[in-house]
Amino acid sequence: MGCVHADYEGKPVIGIINTWSDMNPCHSHLRERAEDVKRGVWQAGGFPVEMPAMTLGETFQKPTTMLYRNFLAMETEELLRSYPIDGCVLLGGCDKTTPALLMGAISMNVPTIYASAGPMLRGNWRGQLLGSGADVMKYWAERRAGTIDQRAWAEIEEGIARSAGTCMTMGTASTMTSAAEALGFTLPGATSIPAVDANHAKMANLSGRRIVEMVWEDLKPSDILNEASFKNAIATVLALGGSTNAVIHMIALAGRAGIKLTIDDFDSLSKITPVLANVRPTGRYLMEDFYYAGGLSALLKMLSPHLDLSCVTVTGKTVGENINNAEVHNADVIRNIENPLFPSGGLVILRGNLAPNGAVIKAPAAEPRLLKHGGPAIIFDSYDEMNKRIDAPDLKADENSVLVLRNAGPKGAPGMPEWGNLPIPQKLLKAGVRDMLRISDARMSGTNYGACVLHVSPESFVGGPLALLREGDIVELDVPRQQVNMQVSDEEIARRRASWRPKQDSYPRGYGKLYMQHIKQADEGCDFDFLEGISPIREPEIH
Ligand code: FES
Predict the structure, then answer these.
(1) d(CA 286, CA 123)
(2) I want to staple 326 with a disulfide (CB 3.0 to 4.6 A). Which of 123, 301, 361, 391 is the partner?
(3) Mean pLDDT to the nearest integer, 121-147
(4) What's this model's pTM, rounded to 2 decimal places?
(5) Ligand 1 pocket test: which of 58, 64, 135, 243 has the largest number of ligand atoms within 8 Å of its C-beta?
(6) Angstrom distance (rounded) from CA 50 to CA 108
(7) Is the separation of the CB atoms in 219 and 148 below 8 Å?
(8) Closest Cα to atom 2 of ligand 1
(9) Is the dihedral of CA 279, 285, 289, 294 positive or negative?
(10) Residues of 137-167 as b/e, b for ≥16 C-beta within 10 angstroms?
């Protein structure tokens, strides 16, 4: 490697866990950022080593990145355990990479800074702003309705991802990187900086400098994380109008820190936390605008009455000290609590005879008429079946029908893919319908919108009540009462349960088999049961 003793002797060894890959466009700048981190580490008197880890690229990975979140978490933990690493800088950002890298680092409990990839630049089509994901779905519906032509669709494809970086709506990527910042894992304001802004390279450099100090201070994840820091992160997700995926990831992250978080924590905080970020898909602007308006530091300042400002962060200072000088530069993008986008209810937890262990809906992203709605179920037992039938002219659907997808949960799909935003049938699109009530045990991309009840638990594959629903049964959603029910009597449900038979899982060996044996349900965070908790693992022997 060309290093001399003086390069490393007596210096903290800093592992830079890098999820760069040609298969992940969101991370295409992370090799350069690793060099920026190294520059900072050298300057602060540390010895940097870059360690590649599996990327989880939303755009290409089959069947879904969520199948591999725990794989990357295990890889991160074991990289940090099996090599002589004193502290680490994590480079990720595309949706699942954030929770995965942090879950591994929390379990290993070495000093850790997260330097996230940052959002890409705003999309542009014929002078109009384009937002990742949200506008793909919006214009794909228009393409299917026949209101835009193939040339326009091709131009949209060319204009929607203009730079390196993660989706620039408040999708799962920006939701989770912001949650990481609110938990205390990043330098202040780090997660809002666009990926290709010069300040992003500076942030990486500063993260490299700071991690060396953190090693000498022995400032570890266990010194940062507690119940209050997780509640700060949940309040932040809610104030951002963030992704429903955060519910699963935050529960899993807390489980690694030995903290019991439940969907009811989201429920109680959702009732009192205002939505302050006017960012798509809930609001109007994009992440670049959010950064220029002051970024997450400014939002946290506005949210201060809802936060525990005494929580410690990677700076060694408290949240309150970090945001002391933050300012809002555009009061329409980052609202204050007197003028919120929504007074509360960014995410709503539902229960009922269809989801005894819970489900979630992002209520502000749905057409209001559907928040209290009942209609007959149209059921698809697989994604392929849905694809085959959804545009069939004889599909008996109108705007009041309820589209149901099952076998799309953690075990059923497997991997709980982002299939929960079921497409509107083409004949209804042509008639002007743009939202319908949809219910599934799947997840939904944080960039998507619509009246989608997600994460139904227990999932249908393991015999949850969704498996017992029949075509034509009336399904009712009542968001104000937080209920999702089928109008089927308890006796009839019991009769159907008696005749229900489980499906076989399809993995004879390999990681898939391990996954099927140990994955937990959505309301429990979808971690592997053997990875949770803080039981100490002994340091590997060195001979
Ligand atoms: Fe990577 Fe959206 S595809 S963040």
Answers:
(1) 9
(2) 301
(3) 92
(4) 0.97
(5) 58
(6) 18
(7) no
(8) 167
(9) negative
(10) bbbebbbbbeebeeeeeebbeebbbebbbbb
